[in-house]
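Entry 14. Ran structure prediction on the chain below.
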Amino acid sequence: MSTLPLSGIRVVDISSFLAGPMVSMFLGDYGADVIKVEHPGRGDEVRFWGENKDGVGYQVENGAIYSTVKDGGNLYTEKEYGDFVLRFEFKLTEGANNGIGIRAPLTGDSAYQGMEIQVLDDSTDETTSIAALAVRRHASRGFNIRYMHRVDRTGYKAGALEAGLSESTGEFIAIFDADFIPPPDFLMRTLPHFGADPRIGMVQARWGHINQDYSLLTKIQSILLDAHFVLEHGSRNRAGCFFNFNGTAGVWRREAIASAGGWQHDTLTEDLDLSYRAQLAGWRFVFLPDVVSPAEVPVEMNSFKSQQHRWAKGSTQTCMKLLPRILRSNQPFSVKAEAFFHLSANFNYLLMSLLSILMFPAMWVRYNMGWTEMLIIDVPLFCAATASIGVFYVKAQRELYPDWRQRMKYLPFLMSIGIGLCVNNTRAVLEALFHKQSEFARTPKYGIERDSDEWVGKKYHQSVGVQPLIELALGLYFTATVFYALVNQIYATLPFLMLFQIGFLYTGLLSILQQYTGESVMLKSPEVAK
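Output, C-alpha cells:
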C-alpha cells in the first residue's frame, strides 16, 4: 500500500477479485468515495463505496461476498473488510473495455497528520457546494483541511494563491490544479532536493496527459507539452539557465516566494512572473522529468485557444515587465540570451500573421521571377524551417515513448495547428503590447479520461466571437492560393501552402462547430482582473 503525501490520499491496491481483474488506481482531487471498474469480458460496471468509522488507512484484499440485494433493477453486493463495508453496484453496460477510473478518499495516515491542506476555490457556480462538502467530509476524519472561497476575486489565481499563502504555515508549498493527479510518492521524490541545497527554491515535475489519445487535438497538445518539458525545461535546467514553474505540479520553498515579492497579479502568467523574479533573487530551480503528474488537456478547440491566449498574453506581459531588469542584471550572457528568447517567443506570431497575408503576393512575384530564384531561396528556407521544428518534436517523443515513430504521423498536423493559432496568439500579444486590461478566462475541463467519455452536453463551453471567421477567411485564402499553385504547376510550394490552409480551416471550422455543440451553457465573457 502506498500514499499520496500532498493530500493524504491512500492508494488502494486491489487485485484478484470479481473473477480476478487486475486493478490499478488513478487518484483525483475531488475526494469522491467511488471506484469504478469495468469487468473484463462481462461488461459489468462496478462501483463501491468504502466507509471507515475511525478514518484510518485501509487495504482491500480478497474477501467473501456476504450480502447481495436487488434495488431498482440494479444488483448490490457487499463485502466486509474489518471496519469497512464495501458496497458494489453491478450495472450491465454494452461494449465495456478493460479499464478503471478511480477517485479515492482521504484517509488518516498518521505520517501526514501534520500536513496542512487548502482547497482554493474562486468558483461562482454550483461546484462550490460540492467542493465544500468534500472538504467537510475529510475534515471530519481528522485532517487539517480547509475550504477557502473568496468573495473578492481580485487577482484570480494569483490572488487566491496569495490569500492561501497568508493563512498557511508550511515551509514548503505544493500546488496542483484540480485536474492534476500526482503520483503517490510525489513529495518523497521532490522534497529531498530542498534538503540537498538550501538555495533550491522550486522543484517542478513533468506534466502527463490522461486523455492524450482522445482526439487529434489532444494528441497534438500532448506532443507540444512533451517538447516544452523534456527539451525546453530539461535543457534550460541542465545549462543553468532560468526556467519557469508551470503553475501546477510543483513545490515551492515558502522563503523563495516571499523573498521574490510574493504572488503578483499584474500579468496573466503569475507562475512565469514569480519564477523569473525568484531566480533573479538567487534561487535555483530543479526540473524532474521522471516525476510525472498527469492532467486533462482541453478537448475543445475554443478552450484550447483560450488557454493559449492567456499563456501568450501573460508571457508577453512578463517579458515587458521583467526583461529590462534581466538584461541589466549581473547574470551570465547565456542566461540573459536564453531569457530573451524565452520571454519574447510569442512575438513570432506577429511575423507569422504577416507572412500569412503576404504569402500569395510573394509566391506570385517568385513565380514571375523564374524557377531559379525559387529553388535557391524558397526551397532551402522551407526545408530549414520545417526540419528544425520536426527534429525538436521528434527528439522529445523519442525520449519519452517506445512507439515514437508511430507518433510522427501527427507532425504535419502539429505544424498546421501551430500556424492556425497565429490569429489567436497575435491578438494576445497585441493586447499585451497596448496594455489592454488583463482578462482571465478559465480553461474548461470536462473530466475526459477515456475515448468513451463525452464532453458534449456538459457545461462550460467557451463562447467565441469574430476570430474563427477571420481564421476561416484565411483558410479560404490559402485554398485559393493552393489552387493557383496547382494551375500554374508550382508543385514545390504545395506542402508549405497546405500547412497554412489546413491549419486555418481546422482551427476556424472546429471553433465554430464546437461552439454550438451540446448544451447552450456558455462561459460568460471573461471578467477583468483587478
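The longest helix spans residues 371-400. Will compare against last week's run tomorrow.
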